[in-house]
Design a protein that fits this description.
By secondary structure, the chain is an alpha/beta fold. Helix content is 39%, strand content 11%. Strands 3-2-1-4-5-6-7 form a 7-stranded parallel beta sheet, sandwiched between helices. α1 runs parallel beside α2, α1 crosses α9 and α4 packs parallel to α6. The longest helix has 22 residues.
Length: 285
């Protein structure tokens, strides 16, 4: 039986956006020397072509990991992230495709294992969002697509990864502050982030006896291609992040260390937890 997936929405044709076209450029560079915390591990980073995913891929490489970059179709960004990983002396592959497709997820994970011989870390970072002022404006196509990309993909990838993840492996999911604060213009997106948090906590309990830790990161407003390229209304982009207690958006390299901490042995006694790099936004609400 042929696989059926909802096609990408066409409301914001620029999504998910190219980091190469974004000004000012997001800061992805690791801020400190590596210490081998992920030495010779193999990581999948979804949405690894740009934004938070690129910063995570760069930091993981600096800490000794080989990285598989899963992305949709931003080939220029993905090639640059691959170059960044390789400049740290690690191996990288860039695998394009639709994470909303179970078939693609299984095929991509198999490609990673065939290339690197193992899989230790699954970083579920990819996502999409579409702002709408009224719930009536959210089409059935958009609703299905947002859930398909943001949460179905995590189920598909985890299912595909499980035969390869051994004791000591880690899964880190990207949820959002919108799960905690609510987001009046991101009803479908914030609903998926609530699902991701529940999925994280439940999967953590499900896998704890296998020695696999599952945690999440809930970023606040971070300067990535997601928002300027259609994830926020144009008139709000100039004010993006300025309502936080720190009065600015965060940078991807301010979020990546949370993923690193949860992925490495520093967090060996943590599972089912969520870290909040959000400039104080959640606690201030």
């Amino acid at each position: 039986m042929a696989e059926t997936i909802d096609p990408p929405t066409v409301e914001e044709p620029a999504l998910p956006g190219h980091e190469s076209q974004l000004e000012p450029k997001p800061e992805w560079q690791p801020r400190y020397p590596g210490s081998g915390r992920l030495q010779d591990k193999v990581a999948i980073v979804t949405g690894g072509d740009s934004g938070i995913g690129r910063a995570v891929a760069a930091l993981f490489a600096r800490e000794g990991a080989d990285v598989a970059i899963f992305y949709l179709d931003e080939h220029d960004d993905a090639a640059e992230t691959k170059r960044i990983v390789e400049s740290e002396g690690r191996r990288a592959i860039a695998v394009p495709g639709d994470l909303g497709s179970k078939e693609f997820c299984w095929r991509a994970v198999q490609q990673v294992v065939e290339t690197f011989g193992r899989l230790d870390l699954l970083i579920n970072n990819a996502g999409e969002q579409h702002p709408d002022e009224n719930i009536e404006d959210i089409t059935e196509e958009q609703l299905r697509r947002t859930f398909q990309t943001n949460i179905y993909s995590m189920f598909f990838l985890t299912q595909a990864a499980m035969p390869h993840l051994k004791q000591g492996a880690a899964i880190v999911n990207c949820t959002s502050e919108t799960m905690y604060k609510g987001a009046p213009m991101l009803l479908d997106y914030s609903a998926t982030k609530g699902a991701i948090t529940a999925f994280t906590r439940s999967l953590a309990k499900n896998l704890v006896e296998k020695g696999i830790r599952v945690n999440a990161v809930a970023p606040g407003p971070i300067w990535t291609p997601l928002n300027p390229f259609g994830g926020q209304p144009t008139d709000k982009v100039s004010k993006f992040g300025k309502s936080t207690p720190m009065k600015r958006p965060g940078q991807p390299n301010e979020v990546a260390p949370s993923f690193l901490f949860l992925a490495c042995e520093d967090a060996s006694y943590m599972t089912g937890q969520v870290l909040h790099p959000d400039g104080g936004d959640t606690t201030a609400s």
